[in-house]
Write a structure and sequence with these properties.
Blueprint: H1 2-31, H2 35-42, H3 45-78, H4 84-91, H5 93-96, H6 99-110, H7 115-122, H8 131-142, H9 144-157, H10 160-167, H11 172-201, H12 204-210, H13 220-229, H14 233-262
Helix pairs in contact: 1-14, 2-14, 3-8, 3-9, 3-11, 3-13, 6-8, 6-12, 8-11, 8-12, 9-11, 10-11, 11-14, 13-14
Length: about 260
Amino acid sequence: MAAKIALRSTALGYLALLLVLPLAVVFFNTFSSGLPAVWAALTAPDALHALWLTIAIVAIVVPANTAFGIICAIALVRSEFAGKRVLDALIDLPFAVSPVVVGLALFILYGRDSAFGAWLMSHGIHVLFSFPGLVLATIFVSVPFVVREVAPTLVEIGTDQEQAAAVLGADPWQTFFKVTLPAIRWGVVYGVVLTTARSLGEFGAVSVVSGHLAGLTQPLTLYVEDRYQAFDPVGSYTAAVVLALLAFATLAVMHWVAGKEKR
């Protein structure tokens, strides 16, 4: 009994010291200046632009990575093809590579000094220091989550129901939407939640490709840093609190989904 109490106390103390306490300090410092100051920081034009820019990035990245993740998971689990192991390994690349390296790679590829980047610019397509660059960087760092949540589910459910549907005359699309997708729905939802959380908090890759242009290419994570370096603690803390609340909402959805799955 004493060992269990000591174990739980250690776990709770660890979480409180490293997770709860820093967040509590951010919340306390945010509201210590009073609600009017927080409201002014929250409704500042650059803060609102950063918030909507972050939401816009998430709105594009999550559907794109969800569709790719489902297709890629089905390809990896349901078929054999040349290069399958390479593809399987590449999916985990964002887990292994630092986001800063990802941003630098995009900078080299789409910069004016590369042939591809110069060709895009000559056709009026600007990737760096603009919205497409932010989206590409965020897609890169969040691409594995749906794949890694859906693939084990596909292995677990097997192919019996899909084969039965095919025998009964269902075409591939009917089989997918009426048999496969309902069976993997919770894996998809988990992947979407994790992708959303990762997209909201991405900093390193977008920092390299954004150009830090306030009111133009500055999502919330970069806005927090910008306000802090500009000696505007209320603006920095308020933006950090908004990001934390969005993360909490994402976690709440994840736990709600877990509860539904257990039933």
